[in-house]
Amino acid sequence: MGDGFPIHRGNIFHAINRLRKLKMNKHALEVMEWVIREKPYRPKELDYSYLLEFTAKVHGISQGEKLFSCVPTEFQNELLYTNLVIACLDKGAISLSLAYMKKMRELGHPISHLVFNRLIILHSSARRKKFIPQILTQMRADKVAPHVSTFNILMKIETNEYNIEGLMKVFGDMKRAKVEPSEISYCIIASAHAVARLYTVAEAYVEALENSVTGNNWSTLDILTMLYGYLGKEKEIERIWANVQDLPHVRSKSYVLAIEAFGRCGLVDRAEELWLEMKSKKGLNSTEQFNSILSVYCKHGFIKKASAIYREIGTNECKPNAITYRHLALGCLKAGLVDEAVKTLEMGMNLTASNNVRNSTPWLETTLSIIEMFAEKGDVEKAEKLFEELKKAKYTRHTFVFNTLIKAYAKAKIYDPNLLKRMILGGARPDAETYSLMKLAEQFQA
Q1: Burial 342-352 (b: 16+ CB within 10 A, else e)
Q2: Helices (H), 300-360
């Protein structure tokens, strides 16, 4: 425009999408206000829908509603209503969005699956989850065709609660609806099975994921790196990492995941190589970067190397966080430094950690590893204290997690007949190891 070239709708479309991705809502609004004011081309429904979207994001729903009433009647159609409903949902105004959805039905406008997706996400918490079946029923009543993204959201909700059965039920519903799974679908399913230590099943879905991949998508490559780390396939990690390096831009996060994946395979030297490469190419500006190599050292008991990384964090204007101390506590236990481990755990507990962190797989897996160490020593008190964290995150739905607690009791020569009941009520299914550990503990009945 500055060089005197005309502005076309396509230029605006790409600019807005870029600004949306960067969450530069104010700049996007300024662009759309300029388009409506200066009219470099005749504005249409898409332009007004963009204007409405960013007005609501920047100035709130009331301003969005006011703008809606000012839009020429010919453009007050399905697209504009959809954006208004989504704007309401983005602000958590569920009742208002439902009112506009009712208006859309009265006017005969079809309702997009994107609206229902937002509704489902807003009802994904444990307290609101019971309303999701009603949303799906309404979706069918509105004759909204099943979409892969809706099933992916439903599967992710089950995955976040470590509910493999619920996940596979949704996947079964997806197949019955004849909806083709996407890359994201297979990423969700494979990751859930890998975290649940169901590696044979995970491997089958990783293969399906590889077959569904179209092009070099960095997010899919990152997940494949992580998955092959779980499966212990170093050659496959190297193959995926070579694909990552072919991308125009390699993110620090990709390095972090590759370092952790090689660490899972026991390839500490290779993890160190990538750490040094990341250090030289990307620089160190986040605690997450330090935690990646720290976790590898601690997992394998290299506490001196881990301590050196810990000291380095402060010299790079970063601060150790709660998960840093959790990794260090595991490293101390692996090195036989029990007292230091307990002190380090307490230091980490004094730091604030968000629910997202406490429910994250790295946090839960590291915590379980610490519980395993206490279980080996028969330290029931410390094992139970940490076990409560896993319970809150519903990670105890995995049988192997509860078995670790039962092992602590068996090693301590304590018999608790309520353990099996606790396990079943917590959503885990006893297996052969469970019954063997309970039988062993029975010997120590008072």
Answers
A1: bebbebbeeee
A2: 303-315, 322-334, 338-349, 355-358
d(CA 135, CA 147): 14
Q: Go through 175-199 and write b for each residue having 16 or more CB atoms within 10 A of its CB, e for each that does not.
A: eeeebebbbbbbbbbbbbbbbbeee
Tokens 């059965």 identify what position? Answer: 165
> Are 343 and 312 a contacting pair, CB within 8 Å?
no
d(CA 203, CA 445): 42
Closest CA to 89 of 117, 59, 68, 65: 117
Distances (CA, A) of 423 to 342, 375, 400, 415, 416: 27, 17, 11, 15, 12
Structure-block tokens of residue 72: 């020429």
- Give the pLDDT confidence score for residue 3 in this predicted structure: 53
**pTM for the full predicted model:** 0.91
User: How many CA atoms does the CB half-sphere of 290 hold within 13 Å?
Assistant: 27
Please state, in angstroms and as integers, the Cα–Cα distance from residue 341 to each residue in 107, 129, 166, 234, 335, following that order.
65, 38, 37, 31, 9
Q: How far is it, in rounded angstroms, from Cα 383 to Cα 398? A: 16
- Written as one string, the DSSP assignment of 268-316 is HHHHHHHHHHHHHHT----HHHHHHHHHHHHHTT-HHHHHHHHHHHHHT
Q: pLDDT tens, 266-313?
A: 999 999 999 999 999 999 999 999 999 999 999 999 999 999 999 999
18 vs 300: CA distance, rounded Å:
43
Contacts 24+ apart (CB under 8 A), 50-55: 50/12, 50/16, 52/80, 52/83, 52/84, 52/87, 53/83, 53/86, 53/87, 54/25, 54/26, 54/28, 54/29, 55/29
Tokens coding 196 = 């649940």
Rg for the chain, CA atoms, rounded: 26
Q: Please return the burial class of 432, using the count of CB atoms within 10 Å of its CB with bins 0-12, 13-18 and 19+.
A: exposed
pLDDT 10s digits, 79-95? 999 999 999 999 989 99
Distances (CA, A) of 162 to 193, 196, 358, 426: 9, 8, 14, 12
DSSP-derived letter for residue 143 is: T
* Ramachandran region, residue 247 (left: φ > 0; alpha: ψ -120 to 50; beta: rest): beta
Element (H, E) at 251: none
